[in-house]
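Co-fold these.
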Amino acid sequence: VLSRCEREFILRAIRDGQRLDGRSTYDYRDITVSFGSERGHVEVQLGSTRVLAQVSCQAVKPRANRPAEGQLFINVELSPMASPSFETGRPSKQTVEINRLLERCLRESRAVDTESLCILAGKLVWTVRVDINALDDCGNLIGCCSVAAITALAHFRRPDVTVSGEDVTIHPADEKNPVPLSVHHKPICILFSFFGNGDFLLCDPGYKEEAVMDGHMVVAMNKHREVCCVQLGGGVALLPDQILRCTHIASVKVAEITEKIDFALLRDERVRRGETVAMEEDDADFITKSQVDAVEVQDVEEPIVVKKDWQESGDESRVVVVGHGTAVIGQGGQSQWDMDDDNGDEQFEVNGGDVDDVTIVETKPKKKKKKKVKKAAPVVDVNDDCISEEEDTVVLTGEDIGGKKPIVDGEKENGVIDLTAALKRKKDQHTKKGKKRK
Amino acid sequence: MSLRSLSCEQSLLARCDGSARFKHGETSVVAAVYGPGDVKPNKEIINKATIEVTFKPKTGLPGCAETALEKILQDTCEAVILTSLHPRSSISIILQVEHDDGSLLPCCINACCVALMDTGVPMRGFVCAVACAVQQSGEEIIDPTLEQEQSAAAVLTFGFSNESEIITSHMIGQIAQEKFYSALSFASSAAKTVSDFYRSSAEKKLSKVRSCMSRNESMK
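Predicted complex below.
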């Protein structure tokens, strides 16, 4: 959500040929590809946008309609970490769009050869799963996710398999070197954003530019100038030659990006083989990064836990069972809260603001705690003139109910207050009075 | 017996209010914090902040185990965050596992703590968490790797605050009672290292501020 002045500022700057971060119209932000120790673990940074991809595989039974082909699953999750507008639970429209786009881009363009994933036709195939988690959304998530996905697939190694007749042996990594997947080509998605109803075009928008764009288009291509997927995101109508121009721009960008990916993959191979030392940036230069080497843990002489003697605890926590279903902790007694003098010796506040109603208390003979019923101090003057027979609400005061003083100290008399009789009495009173008035 | 090399990187994400990546050797977790901010009316607490934790595993969809971890982390954070300073607000903590090589729960707790510190959420102290695996032979290992965890009789995780208070205690497995106490003492002494590391990384992050301040003073 952007403010109106920000929106107008960005649009006016675009019309003047300027962008927020100083890039030109077709400039892509810096792409950094880094690999983890596990095979298939890739983190891609496109400017500030960050995406983490992990590839894993499992040997399963193939699908009935394709018995000699493996499967490729792509799961993109927009973590709530990436943006305050992302939520967990049901995938949002944006999540579904990115998922479908990557599926078309990778699976349907046959970027990964699924036939080579077959182990035993009809019985066992590899299913390869790519999990992509967005860590930071600063614009062009789709571009970043596509780079991460294809790089992770190219980086991944699956276990080697030996098949002899019907026997299948899957070799663990220490027995036989894992084998790379068969990646035919690397399709990359390039995102174009349109402003001013198709007049202005920006490549690789940042998140503020994405928020003000009218429409977008994704073109997925590989470095062989083959278009793998085109999706117009709506919002803007384009001319055919505009789309063609975008594909030309995309082919240039894809060539650059593929070169970066290949270089990063090659460097990682060298590091793993030990030929090159990983060029880590010196952590000392960054004040936000710190590290401490492995530290010896000192042995602790005295035991950390001191056994406590339960008898020592004071009487304050003793529980006294008073009767069936009643127990007392503490001493009870006079309420410690400040009370007005008007309320006399009550210990209970009447529930809620309904001062006219009286709390009904069922006292049990054995109760030790003092319980008193508060005599209703009516706020409204119960003027008989106001009350008519037709009114549904009848106000009962303390006198109406028992005619006695409030029940004190759990007396042995019946603790039950008969409301029906009291109501009848009151109604008879009013009918008498009404008759008098008439 | 030693704690693996610890490393932390703060403020690495741009959109969230605070973030941290914490590593115990190869185990790496990224934590991000949004807050204090809006809370859904059904989750609102009138006198405290609502702490929401989301834990995302590296592969697969989140399931029951992830929800259990979320609960442990939420209880840990509620013990240290001064929630009554932000009533009717939410503090959302999101964690992403980057690599699991053992000691995942302590790494998550430590990442949470540093991320909260990076955000500036008021807390009553740090949480320093350490795991201890007790092997079948009875030997204790601090900060176990994945292999050591899988072959251990029990894996215990303890979270300490303010040097001596135990905030979190989680155990998987079965061991004798004395082993529990000895694991607790080892974890407690290891937690001091984590606590010192928090302090030094916070000092490093603020070192430019300090040098700027001292420069301003010398200019006066």
